[in-house]
Amino acid sequence: MDYALDFENLKTKCLEEISKASSLKDLTELKNKYLAKKGEISLMMNHIREVEDKKAFGEMYNACRKSVEEALDIKIKEEENKKLIEDLKKEKIDITLPGNSYQRGSANPFYKIINEIEDIFVGMGYSVETGPEVDYDKYVFELLNIPHDHPARDMQDTLYIDNNLLLRSHTSSVQAHVMEKAKGQPIKIICPGKTYRRDDDDMTHSHQFAQVEGLVIDKNINLGNLKATLELFAKKMFSKDTKVRFRSSFFPFTEPSVEVDISCFNCKGKGCPLCKGSGWIEILGAGMVHPNVLKMSGYDPEVYSGFAFGIGIERVAMLKYGIDDIRRFYQNDLRFIKEFKKVKED
Ligand code: PHE
């Protein structure tokens, strides 16, 4: 028996149906109808038993099957491409639509000021230190030449954990820690941080506030160096024409001690409400490190000298940005914080 015609007819029928198919679903059905185990082409294999020239039959079978498979593959690809193009058309993204914006926060002005102060001093070669907020009496008072019965303690009455442990009343405590670690070597540091005092909270006072301590110890350090340093700080912080004035004062850990005023940047020294008519604004306490302090921390005051200063961070921020109440820094009122979003770029 010759099956050549049967294969030819079967192939023609298949190819015709394939060319007419217009969806992937139709094509899958055709694949099943002809090529699956019980498909028409596959079933043709049963006739191999009846033929003598099995090789020729096998070749015809394979050729028929191959043409149908190829035709199906090509058509399936075509249909898939068509579908993809349709899908892409449907799913086109409109890139001109405005995006979803998100709310960005901004740093509290308190931290902005700390960053500004740090930048200025790092620019002068200082490194930035940290120290404990809960500290021993020894570091907060004793090593700073404030013995137990010293009246200066009253001015810095603070919160005690026990007789010996307290919340630091100034960042000057970091001076003693840094000197202890430096073991007689020169020092040039600043340390910003929180400080605590028993205080009646009002517009200008808070039981928690912050200072930046500065400490320089080396050979031949003098009051002129201190003045030049603070003048440069004031010029960078407030305005180029800011002047600095020293008034003599008293701190147990510095000798001589000074209160430092800057010329009022608001009225340029003429007198205005900000400087209460005086033309000057007090911003910090400073002085030459007391020989006793140097000695207690292992420095020979005949060889080494140094200066120290303590700047009130909130005070500087209040002056610079015209903030009326110190408590605003801690209340986390977003309306207040948002006001400072752009300050750094100005
Ligand atoms: N610790 C002083 C204060 O809190 C400030 C100060 C620091 C003064 C360093 C002199 C030197 O008032």
List keywords for this structure.
9 strands, 346 residues, alpha+beta, single chain, two-stranded antiparallel sheet, rod-shaped, binds phenylalanine
Describe this structure in words.
With 346 residues, the protein is an alpha+beta fold. The chain contains 12 helices and 9 strands. The strands form 2 sheets. A 7-stranded mixed β-sheet has the order 1-4-5-9-8-7-6. A two-stranded antiparallel ribbon has the order 2-3. Helix 1 runs parallel beside helix 4. The chain starts with a helix and ends in an 8-residue tail after the last helix. The mean pLDDT is 92. It binds phenylalanine.
Bin the strand percentage.
15-25%
Uncertain segments are none
Report the count of strand segments.
9
Q: For the largest sheet, list the strands in their spatial order.
A: 1-4-5-9-8-7-6
H/E element string?
A: HHHHHEEHHEHEEHEEEHEHH
What's the average pLDDT? 92
Rounded to an integer in angstroms, the radius of gyration calculated over CA atoms is 43 Å
SSE class: alpha+beta
The ligands found in this model are:
phenylalanine
Helix run count: 12
Helix fraction? Answer: 40-55%
Shape descriptor reads rod-shaped
How far apart the termini lie comes to 98 Å
Main sheet characteristics: 7 strands, mixed
Question: What would a concise description of this structure say?
Answer:
This protein has 346 residues and is α+β, with helices and mostly antiparallel strands. The chain has helices spanning 4-20, 24-35, 40-44, 54-90, 109-123, 137-140, 152-155, 173-182, 223-237, 291-296, 313-321, 334-338, and strands at 127-128, 134-136, 165-167, 187-196, 208-218, 244-251, 254-263, 280-289, 305-312.
